[in-house]
Amino acid sequence: MKLFNHKSGEYIDIDSAKIYFEGIGNSKKHPLIFLHGGFGNMEDFNEIIPSIHNEYYIIGIDSRGQGKSTLGNNKLTYERIQKDIQIVLEKLSITNPIIIGFSDGGIAALRLASFNKIKIDKLIIIGSSWHSKSLESSKDILGGITAEKWKKRFPETFEKYQSLNPEPNFEKLTESIVKMWIDEEKTGRPNENIRNINCPTLIIRGDKDHLTSKRSVFELSELIENTNLANIPFSGHEVYVEQKNVVIEIINQFLKK
Predict the structure, then answer these.
(1) Residue 236 domain-assigned?
(2) What is the CATH classification number for the domain harbouring 19?
(3) DSSP line for 149-206
(4) How confident is the model at residue 241 (pLDDT cuts 50, 70, 90)?
(5) Which of 46, 89, 240, 252 gets the highest tally of CB atoms within 10 A of its CB?
(6) Residue 117 pLDDT > 80, yes or no?
(7) Domain total of the chain
(8) DSSP three-state, residue 109
């Protein structure tokens, strides 16, 4: 099976930025959209894509400023990423997609579903917060990240960014992402708007996730109708990497329903 490779995709010009996407498989099949986390790119999902149980038209989107997408001149917010995704899907005439989002990608997906800009068939979010009150415990951690600290701790993500991005500026990207992470305005997390979500939803969290609390995902599962919640032990924020087989089994069961 083909995987994301950052070679076969295209760009769409959106508000001063070039947003990169790739499609895998038959475009007439049911669309399955992958949205990556902060400082990541679509290739982060390559380990799990071959194990998805059915055949889909798989689409990966590199978030603004990350992967092969450029940052542009607009302020980076979850609202901005949401609008970018919406425009890409509209340009591709994608309707009723399944969306899988990790961390920042999950927050953008929650916004898409909350504001009903696109009808979503099923929603899967992994390690994602949904309310600005989650920043009570994580704001100091997120707000204290600098480009140098990130490069030192996660050198592979920096090197991948440098190799992929057509306009690399890691200092500017880091500053933009950190501001997005700690944004408590309406451009940030969807907050109470998640009550508007009406598609079947699967919430996945690693039990030791230091950025997304057990209480917050439980509350989220109570507020969205038709929700399944999986809190997976022996794993942290990147639960789909640390407990790949467990996560794949849960996702496949959800998709089959």
Answers:
(1) yes
(2) 3.40.50.1820
(3) HHHHH-HHHHHHHHHH-SS--HHHHHHHHHHHHT--STTS--GGGGGG--S-EEEEEE
(4) very high
(5) 240
(6) no
(7) 1
(8) helix
